[in-house]
Amino acid sequence: MIQRLALRGKTYDIHIREGLLDDCGGLIREYLGAYCASEVVLITESNVRRRYAARMGDALARARIAFWPFVLRPGERSKSSASLARLYDAFAARRLRRDGLILAFGGGVVGDLAGFAAATWMRGVRFVQIPTTLLAQVDASIGGKTAVNTRAGKNLVGAFHQPSLVLSDPALLADLPAREFRCGMAEAVKYGAVRSKRLFERLRTAPDRAALCDIIGECCAIKAGIVERDVFDTGERMILNFGHSFGHAIETLGEFRRYKHGEAVAMGMVSAAETGERLGLTARGSADALRAVLAAQGLETDCPYTPAELLPQMETDKKNSGGTLRLVLLAAPGEAFVHTLDRAALRKAMGGI
Ligand code: GLY
Question: Residues lining ligand 1, CB < 6 A?
Fold first, then answer.
């Protein structure tokens, strides 16, 4: 299946197919056409390298694409300015020029870091996303958000830089730890909740292998449409943060160890739906519907923190401005909107603290 994201001045394809890893070289060669990238760097992390480097190496060799690898440690700590500095040093040593190509082969951390390096090196080098986690296949690899973490906070330093091509092989997901997989499903549920009642209903049962490929395609199609209409996240794209204001607060209170991002977003979506119901803006029963769908995907839905704990964290969210908070709410599953309210109103809607 191929989805397409069409922006003014940049259109790219998102290929989703089992077994696609072995055809990566051919698809990149096809994208490059007559153009020959002066240098190709493959950025990955050590777990991905251990599992798939040989297959990726063969796929690129068959397409006569010479590359050099850059391997990160797995985990969020690699999304740092220190890793970025090491990458820049390697680019300089290898004389990577503006006509080079970066391949980001891994999950969200690799994609975000490699994407930011691609956005900034020589003021912009082309890059290809080859996501290996469900979360990256349904969400992070599409739409051009790139970032590194700094002492000031997660993702505060970043750039919009669209990939030139996205190559997703759902067969790789069979190797994902179950917890990682569930985190990706939380984001898939988010796509149903914000834009597609049909997808939302479909997720009332855990997908088999064939359905999974389809679900990834559906999430990508929804995201592509939204990004096409609001590439810089100033309007409609904000609905993709459904559950994230609460979710970031939950992650922070758990010191980024207790819950993974997708787990926190799952609880955050339920909290947002409950808040919307209390405000009279969300159809009654929406929070229960979300609980049922998320539980079917093996996700916890009960937020362990009190409104008094959550609220101060939510006030630091980068979507807020001028003393008001912006919250993504559901009218009903399948339909989201951005709601602006002040602290007192939110406090009351969260259960009056
Ligand atoms: N992950 C949400 C977005 O790309 O806007």
Answer: 139, 143, 145, 233, 237, 240
In contact, 88 and 119? CB cutoff 8 Å: no
* C-alpha 231 to ligand 1 mean position (Å): 10
Report residue 32 as tokens. Answer: 């490059």
Tell me which residue range forms the domain holding 144.
Answer: 2-175
Element (H, E) at 102: strand 101-106
User: What pTM value is reported for the model?
Assistant: 0.94
DSSP 8-state assignment for residue 306: -
Helices (H), 156-258: 178-195, 197-202, 209-229, 244-253
Specify whether 161 is located in the same domain as 255.
no
Closest listed residue to residue 32, CA positions, set 20, 43, 24, 44 = 24
- pLDDT tens for 249-272 read 999 999 888 999 999 999 999 999
Single-letter amino acid, residue 147: A
pLDDT per residue as tens digits for the range 90-136: 999 999 999 999 999 999 999 999 999 999 999 999 999 999 999 99
Compute the distance between CA of residue 352 and CA of residue 344 in angstroms, rounded to an integer.
Answer: 9
Residues 28 and 121 in one domain: yes
